[in-house]
Amino acid sequence: MPPEATEALQRTHFTAIDAVIVAVYLGLSLLIGIFVRRYARNMTAYIGADRKIGTWLGVATMLGTEMGLVTVMYSAQKGFTGGFAAFHIALIAGIATLIIGATGFIVGPLRRAEVLTIPEYYEKRFSRRVRVLGGCILAFGGILNMGLFLKVGSQFIVGITGLSAEGWALPAVMVGLLLLVVVYTALGGMISVILTDYVQFVILSFGLLIATGLAIAKLGWTDIFETTRAVLGDAGFNPVAEGSGFGWSYVLWMFVTAGLVGCAVWPTAVSRALAMESEKAVRRQYMVSSISFTIRFMIPYFWGICALVFISASPEGADLKPLFFPPEGAGHAAIDNLYALPIFLGRLLPPVLIGIITAAMIAAFMSTHDSYFLCWSSVITQDIVAPLRGRRGLSEQARIRLTRFIIFALGAYVLYWGLFYEGKDDIWDYMAVTGAIYFNGAIAVLIGGIYWKRASRAGALAALVAGCSAVFGLGPVQKLVGLQYLDPETEEWVQRLTGAEVGLLSVALALAAMVIFSLLLPDRNSAAPAKS
Known about the structure:
The chain is mainly α. It has helices at 3-9, 16-35, 43-48, 55-66, 69-82, 87-103, 107-112, 118-125, 128-145, 149-161, 169-219, 221-232, 248-264, 267-274, 279-313, 321-324, 340-348, 353-388, 396-420, 427-451, 457-467, 475-481, 499-520; strands at residues 484-486, 493-495.
């Protein structure tokens, strides 16, 4: 890359004062983890905060987790590539969350069952074998799902601070952030997670509003819409228009992933429901959170659109346009569009404010990582290791120690995966596909177990296995099995089935497996389904 290109990418308003603001905030976060360690007396306190979370704290901590830095980054990427058409995902998420809160669909019965994890419900309703298999698939899909979180979050820090996107900077930031979040999560468990989420909720709420206002003032409301139409055409506003990159199958897939799954089945969201003080509080939390579930997508989409307008049409971003949209014969590939948002914010926000926003974004990074680390490590401890030990079991302290060890092991994994994964999927699409490895089977098992008396152990096992077929939506896997082929004329990879189409087929397969195997191999003593 020529020197002038490097200079353009590193131009930012981030100063030494902003670095101090970030350092102070991170230090306080670490102190929180150390201080609340004394309260992690047992597994209920460590991973469930003693089930004493009220409605409003639950709303704040749910938004804190779901509005992570990776959410901001992958949503901004969708806004940058899809324009206002990406807003359909936000609307679907909000409407689905409101419906689930009003009906208590899935989350209500789970809270009444007084379980700490979803696989624990599998054992109550079906058998220990279903719990262990469900725990294994959940851990595999969930851990794979968060594999790129660390790299994406670090790309934001590199972009907004003006560090070099090449060389040592990105790996160094990844290691530093990882050590911070792993240490304080392992120390304090869910209590430290919730406290940090609350602080992040407050800071990030103000940061989102201020940055959005500055972006509109900088670019002009009318110019944002006109430039989006000029660059993307109708596809920038209509998700089913030709060339939008979405389409009807994608919209339907978003109803499953961003709607049903994102709030009713995804463990990091459900873990908040299982820590609430009552089922009534759970339902109220979801109804109020429907607004935040919409906002957590919509504002970052808008930021991505603003980054597109700034780079493609603003005089101040003219030096960036040939880097993100290189003309033919430029001699270099386009810059990873994940850097578009942080570079845009680095030039938009003034000193001090950029430090506060960066600190809030790092807090968002931490709040997502801590919840995911705690969720997947507790699943492995509670739903795989402990049940496999049978009557010997594990003491409370042994479970906490094992959970902490797994947190550090997961940290090593996300560092490795972030450095070496070479898939070309959009981050949101990557997350939807990897998450589907777990939730496609989980949807069938939870709906069948809660609402259908004849659902059997055989049906649950078959549904969990069938749901794993979602792995064929990943780009590298598709190339391996022939679902993608290299077009000899364009020398580009062409999909036979999109990730969304594979996901929908996988959901249908899991539901069919639950019904067919339950009817063919019924349980002798069927458990009554929980009432909604």
